[in-house]
């Protein structure tokens, strides 16, 4: 089985960070979003990955090659973002007739991966949501088989949202239906959507079974990213690299602090992730994500997302600061 991970999106809702960093490489709870996905699939026995890259795709490729040299990886470029259906269609010549699992590059879910991979059925991950109008929606019968899927319906007939994890056995039908979308110019909200191809497969008699994910972490916006960071830290516990220098500082778990960090007269935590080689002096930081090679001096930071190579001095604010930034409120 091969894994397809689309990571070509621009991540507009996470700007300014995604001006310089792909959304999939934004750190949470000591790892990147992409690493949570790849590690989960690799632990289940998948060794061949196809990454669909676009915006800042060279950073994705460099990161994957450096972090996972032991994996068999392909990189497919989606030069024009025309939707998830268009992205998946670009992998046709690599997949051939292999079974695949598709996981969207901003989707972190907890589920029984081996059970899904080994299922004799095509499988779609679902989760009950309060307002399904923002998602693909699955209509499911009493035997957990899926009768219809619809992308962002104005009047949903179900509150079971598609979470962005798809196990496809009948890949020849998948690519036939994707071709059908292009031939008939079938778009939803101006894009060729994977959900429409799945509905085409269902109408042609392909069976899909649903599986419920235990947890679905939202990494799409600053507020939900910080919530996800806190939840994952609570679940996984603190990680403080042995090279961290701590002088008169208090650490309130759970936190993750990367290699080479320097803490001096600081209070860190709870729910804080700090990238490597960052310096925090005379500061208080809680419920925040701080990038690598960043300097914080005489600040009180709460509920903030600060990129790498940033410098912040002398304030008490909630911040959303991108990479390579210097701010001095002194």
From TrEMBL:
All copies of domain Nucleotidyl transferase, residue ranges: 2-234
Any Pfam family the entry gives: NTP_transferase
Keyword hit for Transferase: yes
Alphabetized InterPro entries for the sequence: GlmU/GlgC-like_hexapep, NTP_transferase_dom, Nucleotide-diphossugar_trans
Domain Glucose-1-phosphate adenylyltransferase/Bifunctional protein GlmU-like C-terminal hexapeptide: 237-287
SUPFAM superfamilies per UniProt: Nucleotide-diphospho-sugar transferases
Molecular function as annotated in GO: transferase activity
Keywords assigned by UniProt, alphabetized: Transferase
Gene3D superfamilies noted in UniProt: Hexapeptide repeat proteins, Spore Coat Polysaccharide Biosynthesis Protein SpsA, Chain A
Coiled coil: none
Tagged with keyword Transferase: yes
Protein name as catalogued: Glucose-1-phosphate thymidylyltransferase
Organism of derivation: Ilyomonas limi
Upper lineage: Bacteria, Pseudomonadati, Bacteroidota, Chitinophagia, Chitinophagales
């Amino acid at each position: 089985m091969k894994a397809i991970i689309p990571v070509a999106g621009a991540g507009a809702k996470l700007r300014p960070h995604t001006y310089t960093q792909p959304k999939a490489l934004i750190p949470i709870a000591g790892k990147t979003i992409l690493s949570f996905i790849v590690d989960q699939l690799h632990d289940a026995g998948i060794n061949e990955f196809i990454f669909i890259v676009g915006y800042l795709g060279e950073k994705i490729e460099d990161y994957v090659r450096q972090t996972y040299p032991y994996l068999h990886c392909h990189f497919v470029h989606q030069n024009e973002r025309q939707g998830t259906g268009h992205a998946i269609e670009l992998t046709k010549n690599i997949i051939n007739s292999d079974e695949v699992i598709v996981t969207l590059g901003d989707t972190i879910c907890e589920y029984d991966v081996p059970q899904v991979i080994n299922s004799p059925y095509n499988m779609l991950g679902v989760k009950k949501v309060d307002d399904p109008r923002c998602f693909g929606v699955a209509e499911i019968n009493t035997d957990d088989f899926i009768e219809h899927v619809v992308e962002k319906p104005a009047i949903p007939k179900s509150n079971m949202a598609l979470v962005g994890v798809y196990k496809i056995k009948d890949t020849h039908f998948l690519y036939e239906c994707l071709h059908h979308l292009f031939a008939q110019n079938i778009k939803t909200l101006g894009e060729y959507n994977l959900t429409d191809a799945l509905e085409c497969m269902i109408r042609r008699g392909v069976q899909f079974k649903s599986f419920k994910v235990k947890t679905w972490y939202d990494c799409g916006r600053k507020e939900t990213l910080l919530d996800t960071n806190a939840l994952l830290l609570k679940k996984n516990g603190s990680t403080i690299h042995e090279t961290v220098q701590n002088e008169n500082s208090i650490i309130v778990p759970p936190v993750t602090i990367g290699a080479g960090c320097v803490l001096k007269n600081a209070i860190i935590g709870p729910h804080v992730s700090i990238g490597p080689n960052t310096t925090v002096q005379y500061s208080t930081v809680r419920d925040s994500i701080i990038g690598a090679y960043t300097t914080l001096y005489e600040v009180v930071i709460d509920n903030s997302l600060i990129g790498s190579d940033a410098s912040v001095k002398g304030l008490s604010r909630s911040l959303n600061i991108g990479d390579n930034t210097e701010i001095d409120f002194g």
